[in-house]
Design brief:
The protein has 14 helices and 12 strands. The chain is α/β, with parallel strands linked by helices. It folds into 2 domains: 3-175, 3-Layer(aba) Sandwich (Rossmann fold), CATH 3.40.50.10490; 197-318, Roll (CBS-domain). The strands form 3 sheets. Strands 2-1-3-4-5 form a 5-stranded parallel sheet, sandwiched between helices. Strands 6-7-8-9 form a 4-stranded mixed sheet. Helix 2 crosses helix 7 (153-172), helix 3 runs parallel beside helix 7 and helix 8 (177-183) crosses helix 9.
């Protein structure tokens, strides 16, 4: 057997199974999306075996794109788990043959509850298809399995139509990347869209800060002890007037032989960059890249002059924002 050719054969069959679905996207599909859009409860996926595994993934896709959904195992449902089903829920039943015994056994309960049923099946003349309020055809010409037994192309087609339903519904609802971030706060997108500067900044005793008349000996100690490579310089009112960085120290060493006797105001760089505390951490990254700096001072709001903290590039890296 030529392994490479066999693998290519499988991929061609599975790819074709998806392409064949394109011509079947019709009014039935639109009605299914509309039914899901009007659903006041949750979307409940049901299926046995490989269809059940695909159903779990489809349920997860619905949930992550703003549609409350979960998977209910038909056999477990018959043994008490049907208490999870509410009358407002829409059920999506999955069976390639449309005659899966465990799924057919729960149909009377679904009807008794008054739930709407969307059938995903490869046999539109099957019991499941006839029971469905809407039936979507997921039939494939052949399985990728050379014996024609193992669900392969059929499960791929089912997964694809499930994704199509979820994405079409997502678009209909106007689901945005900010909504996606709220459902994925631990992911990279969630961190970029949700994490605020004040959640990462150094404040209070951890905020490096000196005054204009502070001697450089003390300035160096402040920079070293706070371990951020920077300190803010404030006037007597507490307003930020400058910054002293490691780079400023190196340049000052070349300029002043008596550096330790100089004051912060003689060494500092004026007009340091800043950001509001409720600004997005992602914006802080953008500003650091734009100005080629590694830290920003933080103010409560625009117009304030007294800093409340500082945020460093390392903090953003650790948080996964970068």
């Amino acid at each position: 057997m030529d392994i490479i050719e066999e693998a290519k054969r499988v991929l061609r069959i599975e790819a074709q199974s998806i392409l064949d679905l394109v011509e079947r996207i019709d009014d039935q599909f639109s009605r299914a999306v509309e039914m899901l859009h009007r659903c006041k409860g949750r979307v409940v996926l049901m299926g046995m075996g490989k269809s059940g595994l695909v159903g779990r993934k489809i349920a997860s896709t619905f949930a992550s794109t703003g549609t409350p959904a979960f998977f209910l195992h038909p056999a477990e449902g018959l043994n008490g788990d049907f208490g999870m089903l509410a009358k407002e829920d829409v059920v999506i039943g999955i069976s390639n043959s449309g005659e899966t015994r465990e799924l057919l056994e729960v149909l009377p309960l679904i009807k008794r509850y008054g739930n709407r049923l969307i059938a995903l099946t490869g046999n539109l003349r099957s019991t499941l298809a006839r029971a469905g309020d809407i039936s979507l055809d997921i039939q494939v010409k052949e399985e990728a399995c050379p014996l024609g037994l193992a669900p392969t192309a059929s499960t791929t087609a089912t997964l694809a139509i499930g994704d199509a339903l979820a994405v079409a519904l997502m678009v209909k609802r106007g689901f945005k990347k900010e909504d996606f971030a709220l459902l994925h706060p631990g992911g990279a997108l969630g961190k970029r869209l949700l994490l605020r500067v004040e959640e990462l900044m150094h404040s209070g005793e951890a905020f490096p800060r000196v005054y204009e008349k502070t001697l450089m000996k003390e300035v160096i100690f402040e920079i070293t002890s706070k371990r951020l490579g920077v300190t803010g310089v404030c006037n007597e009112k507490g307003d930020l007037v400058g910054v002293v960085t490691d780079g400023d120290l190196r340049r000052a060493l070349e300029k002043y032989a008596d550096l330790l006797q100089r004051t912060a105001s003689e060494v500092m760089t004026r007009n340091p960059k800043w950001i509001e505390k409720d600004g997005l951490a992602a914006k802080a990254v953008q500003m650091m890249e734009e100005y080629s700096i590694t830290s920003l001072f933080v103010f409560n709001r625009v117009g304030d002059r007294t800093p409340v903290g500082v945020i460093h590039l390392h903090d953003l890296l650790k948080a996964g924002v970068v």
